[in-house]
Amino acid sequence: MALAQYENDMSACSRCSSCKWMPFNQVKSWRFARNCPSLARFTAHPYSGSGKMTMGLSVLKQRSELTEQVAEIVYSCQMCGACDVSCKVYRDDIDLSEVLMELRASCVESGQLIADHMMTVDALKKENNVFGEPRDRRGDWAEGLGLKDTNQETVDVLLHAGCRYSYDRELWPVLRGAVDLLRKAGIEVGVAGAQEACCGGRVYELGYQGEAANFADDMLSRINASGAGVLLTACSDCFSALRYLYPKMGKDPGVEVAHLSGFLADLVADGRIELAEPVPIKVTYHDPCHLGRMGEPFVPWQGDKLGRPQQLKRAGRRGVYDEPRAVLRAIPGLELVEMERIREYSWCCGAGGGVLDAYPEFGSWTALERLEEAEATGARALVTSCPWCVRAFRDSASEHGKELEIIELSELVSRATGTAVASEQGVGG
Ligand code: SF4
Ligand code: SF4
User: Fold this and answer.
1) Which atom of ligand 2 is nearest to the CA of 97?
2) Cβ of 36 less than 6 Å from ligand 1
3) Of the candidates 81, 160, 217, 223, which lies 20 to 30 Å from 370 by C-alpha distance?
């Protein structure tokens, strides 16, 4: 089992518990000092990053079995990577996120499957999306926009919408508004429409690595056929899959992989998008896990002078953090206030790791924690750059009666250019 590759990592854990908290020099209050949603919710050591490594080592050494109860704990985890970056503040020889991924792959290998995740995987195999929606409706979000069809012609920029934007009707105006912004800046994107398929990142995280490889191959063939030099996505999950998981699987996308937030930041900096319209609102920014610490590019570890056998390094510092903030700071009249857990130490939105499918109450609680952190800043709105985060926060806010507005970054940009597209939730001003 591939878990064996990480025996050294699991054995090296000193049980110091640093993975359970923000690094101490980052802590600003007791209330928001925790970093692990799983441990915070279930309050028992096995749910922590360290606890899962202990279980992994025990299973690997055949001191215990991978039972249904163990699998429940392994999957009650957002795969957010917060434990990993906190550990790496002190240790450079443990890749906790990789252990968690291989532990899930071991669950799949040994038949310890979560019923809701099996449904997701079946939906993907049948309809090419994680919701099981009809595959021929995937391109409906772009209807009437007149975008180039990459199945028919070559393009410079291939826009990959991803499953959430493709099938979440309430979020369609966000992506359509982003396309409008790009067009006004002189950038024509092409889409694969109904031929687009899931990037495979979600199934990889669920432990179905073979299925993920199939979706990656499909994506690479579409990128190749499009002739694009840039693969643009507005989804942080897809971004992370393309920047990290694909190269890790030995599948080089062969193009520049860009996220909409960085793309917009460049266009604003170049003056191709002019933010002239004041947007007088106090906002805080949520760093999506898969755009930030899990969105780092994959860099294979070559070993070091001591001959230590690490293969990967993922400390979270090379994620996308500055670009969305630069966009927000360029909007006249807007005030940006920061939460306590930011950048690589961000708290998860609750949508990661298949938790929303299998344990929705846990997902909603995780989002609520973040909403309360955002409220503590005095902000009127929480801005983020991922449709999964937007969905998780909007649902939790509505469930728990929170007034906070949830806004996708490009919605604010549209408003600051005077071209806002109405969405159901709207954009404050
Ligand atoms: S995983 Fe890292 S931070 Fe957590 S207990 Fe082990 S060594 Fe400490
Ligand atoms: S990945 Fe996130 S939820 Fe899972 S153990 Fe680590 S910090 Fe906790």
Assistant:
1) 1
2) no
3) 160
Question: pLDDT digit string (tens) for 395-419?
Answer: 999 999 999 999 999 999 999 999 8
Tell whether ligand 2 has an atom less than 6 A from the beta carbon of residue 185.
no
Q: Which residue, by CA, sits nearest to atom 4 of ligand 1? A: 19
Model confidence over 226-250: pLDDT tens digits?
A: 999 999 999 999 999 999 999 999 9
Model pTM above 0.70: yes
- CATH number, domain at 185? 3.40.50
SS (H, E, C) 282-305: EEEECCCCCCCHHHCCCCECCCCC
Domain assignment present for 130: no
Ligand 2 centroid, distance to 133 Cα (angstroms): 29
Residue 348 lies in a domain: no
Rounded mean pLDDT of 84-94? Answer: 91
As a residue count, the chain comes to 429
Where in the sequence is the domain holding 199, given as residue range(s)? 139-265
- Closest residue to atom 6 of ligand 1, CA basis: 13
- Edge-to-edge strands, sheet with 335-336: 335-336, 282-285, 381-384, 405-408
- CB of 99 within 6 A of ligand 2: the answer is no
